[in-house]
Write a structure and sequence with these properties.
Chain lengths: 419, 231
Amino acid sequence: MEGAIIQEGVRQQIEAIGDAEILVGIPSFNNAGTIGHVVRAVQTGFAKYFPGNKCVLVNSDGGSSDGTMEVVKDTTIDDPNAILLHHQIGPVFKITTPYHGIPGKGSAFRTIFEIASALDVKACAVVDSDLRSITPEWIELLLKPVSEHGYDYVAPLYHRHKYDGTITNSIIYPVTRALYGKRVRQPIGGDFGFSGTLARYFLTKDVWGTDVAKYGIDIWMTTTAIADGFKICQAFLGAKIHDPKDPGADLSAMLYQVVASAFGLIEIYPHVWRAVSRTEPVPTFGFQYAVGLEPVSVNIDRMIERFRLGVKELSDIWNEFLSKDTIDFLKQTASPAKKFYMPDEMWVAVIYEFAIAFHREIINREHLLKSLTPLYVGRTASFVIETAESRAQEVEEKIEGLCEVFEEKKSFLLKGWEN
Amino acid sequence: MNLFERVIIEPFARLTEKVLLFLPNFLISLLLLAVGIVVGWLLKVILTRILRAIRLDSFFETSGMTEVMKKGGIEESLSGLLSKVMGWIIMVVFAVIAMRALEIPTVERLLERFLLYLPHVFASVVIFFIGYLLSNFMGRAALIASVNAGIKVSGLIGKFVRLAVLILAVTMSLEQLGIGSGTVAIAFAILFGGVVLALSIAFGLGGRQIAREYLEEKMHGEGEEDEINHI
């Protein structure tokens, strides 16, 4: 398995390094503009918090043409005084390698897991290559719960703008929480810490030809860690600020990959989620503080327009699996005469009915989940309208309320699943 | 030899001789037909059970084929339909063998032509069926993609894609049957080319402003683009 994806040159590097204790992986694709900062933060994190350990930085690249890999190779900590280091900075081993397989974040992670496994590391972390808010403390917060407290999986906890992470807030967090019982606030945050044992466990799963190899990797890692009984926690990392989103990124493809992975996992772990009847918080590391966040502009009118277009054109498709009540409600909501509002109860019904249709394979699964896009856009518009004047804490309470509805209506999913 | 013998007895004797010669073939033919009916019926029953055991219907339901068949007015399950078709094919094959057993030259010539044409009919039906399924699948994919791209005429795009694939399937299907092989292809090309040309002219003349705005938006970026990071 390893030989299939680790290149010969990398293999020689691994042999030269021998064993390592700490590894941080950075997946990348054309991130030359931002990856330098991330690499510096990681190297400084190694120097400050793991001075006595053998640390490895792995860049798993998707074939960048802008010199991303060269930036990783050339980046060093220029001035130790600037970061208040008084001890000697040890060498940091760097491995930069293109990954193989389906183009996507998951394939990049797989290469990182393979290298972690080959080096027999104790604690690993992965961080995004477009982060502008990463600090050396992130490395400590993601790795020390593993290396010093015996946790297997560290999910991130950030302060984000109230309109950021809407797939997380409206689908993935509430569904993961209601089904598996753990309140992991950012299940698809993108920056995670995990043990070498868990990295090896991930490699035993045959998922690398599915959507897990793309955007589905984050939810897959989190759900696998929870459902298979690994010890999990969260680490507060402060603000998550990254490059503006890729304008070419297709929302419906992204939504499909993430939701298909989440729904696919519901099929893998019915024995786990059926038995869960209540949810519990997970231990959280890190000192929490308020942060200033960059504003996010939203075009609500266009979002509502997309929702209405979806209701007009896709109702025939939805008729095959959504209940009559849901369809009637969506048609009423789409009416320009009414104030635009999609209540939590209705959104939960939509998601659970889609999950049941996915399970029963009523129509082609890609068509099914891509037809969810206008409804998701409509729900996001409704959320933006509702929280326009709300502070961060109030928004968090609103999301908490949505999670409770998902938990209350879980029996509906159970019933639909079994019929 | 008297007249009676020449006019009545001899032809009757020849007829009797011919009938006696033909009779075994006729009986064999009848027997083959009966065997064909029984084998065809048995195959239909066995195949229905096998296809139900391997849950073929639920597989086709997920692939959308059942839905397509229902839209086409076929209410029967696919396993039932396939079994019936196979049963009928066996019966027809036995009927053909039975007719050949009669050893009538005219029938043999007709059968030969029929048998040579049969694969074309089969290929034509298969092509049409696959084309029909594909047209529904692609029409739905185009509809969803257009809605997600915010195109207001999404319904029209979905229908157009569906119709284009269906016309292509019909053209290929008719070509298999040898019906206007060249003409049908040319007619399709003219029709398709005409639609594209009409759309180009309509967009060029009627939608100059929209085209300019669209290109400007693409060149200079969309001013009102959302900045939401969904994940």
